Amino acid sequence: MADLDPARIPHHVAIIMDGNGRWAKQRGLPRIEGHRRGVETVRRTIETARELGIRYLTLYAFSVENWRRPEEEVGGLMNLLEYFLKRETSTLIKNKVRLLTIGRTADLPAGVRRRLEQTIEATAGFTEHTLVLALNYGSRTEVLDAVQAYSAAVAAGEVDPAKLTWEDFARHLYTRDLPDPDLIIRTSGETRVSNFLLLQAAYAEFVFLSLYWPDFSKDAFHQAIADYQGRQRRFGRTGDQLGQASPQPPPLPAGSAS
Ligand code: FPP
Questions:
Q1: Which of 15, 17, 42 to mutate to test the pocket of ligand 1 (most atoms within 8 A of CB)?
Q2: DSSP of 169-187, one letter per residue?
C-alpha cells in the first residue's frame, strides 16, 4: 500500500466511476452485472475514504445523459441504487456518514426518491464524513438551475447583479454546502470530464486510472492519493512562492460542515 502523508489527505475526492460495462463484457456477462459489481466497489470506496480521513466523497452515479441508455439498463441502475440505499443506510448511520445528493433528483423514480429522503434525513446530523451522490447530475443543467435561482433572487430584489461575485453565484449551485473537490479520479482509461463538476473542478487535480470501476481497489485508491500528494497545487501562484512540493487543500469554506 502506498505511503501517505496524513497531513495532506484531500478534503474532497470526487470520482467518475467508469468501466462497469466493459468489465462485464470482458467476462461475457450482461452489463448490469458490471454495475452490480460496481455497487460493491462503491461500498468499499466509502469505507476506504472514511479510513483515510477524507471528509467529502462525491460519486458520479447517474448523469443527465445516462437516460439515453437502453430502458432496461436505466431501470437496472435505478433498482441497484434503491437496493444500495436500503442495504447501506444502517452502515452509513453506524459510521456517522452524512448523505447528500447533487443533481435533479426530483426526476428520479419515486422509490429511489423515497429511499434517498429517508437516508438523507437519518444521516443529516453527521458532520465528520459526507457522501455525495451525483444523481441525474450534469454541470450544464446545474448552471441553468443556478442562473434561474439567481435571476429569481434578482427579480425579488434580494441581490444586486451589479455586485455579483463568484461566491454569490456559487451559493445557487447544487454544491453550495460543499468545498470544491481537491482530487477527481476517473477509472476505465477514459480521460474526459463528461459534464462533471466543471465549475467546481477549477483547481482540482485529476488522476486517470486504466482499471475498470469494479476493479478499483483500496490499493488503487491509496495510489491515487499518493499521486495527488506528489503534486504541487499553485492556485495561480508560482512554485517559488509556495516553496512546497505537495498540495495543501485550501481551508474549508464558511458554511461547509467542519
Ligand atoms: C459507468 O460505467 C457507470 C455508470 C454510468 C453508473 C455507475 C453506477 C454504479 C457504480 C452503481 C450504482 C451506484 C451507486 C452509488 C449505488 P459504464 O456503464 O459507462 O461502463 P462502460 O463505459 O464500460 O460501458
A1: 17
A2: HHTTSTTTTSPPPSEEEE-
Single-letter amino acid code for the residue at 121 = E
- Residue 45 burial (C-beta neighbours within 10 Å; 0-12, 13-18, 19+): buried
Q: How far is CA 187 from the centre of its chain?
A: 13
For the chain, list the domains and their CATH numbers: 9-138+181-230 (3.40.1180.10)
Catalytic residue, candidates 66, 79, 95, 195: 66
For residue 36, give the 3-state DSSP assignment. helix
Task: Find cell 497531513 and name the residue.
Answer: 7
Q: Give dist(CA 106, CA 104) in Å, integer.
A: 5
pLDDT of residue 246 exceeding 80, the answer is no
Q: What's the 1 CA to ligand 1 centre distance in angstroms?
A: 26
Ligand 1 contact via 84 beta carbon (within 6 Å): yes
User: Which runs of consecutive H residues, i.e. helices, occur in the chain?
Assistant: 20-26, 31-52, 71-94, 110-123, 139-155, 166-170, 218-229, 239-242
**Residue from 15, 23, 35, 57 to probe ligand 1 pocket by mutation (most atoms less than 8 Å from CB):** 35
Residue 18 designated active-site:
yes
Reported as a pLDDT band with limits 50, 70 and 90, residue 116 is very high
Confidence of residue 104 (pLDDT cuts 50, 70, 90): very high
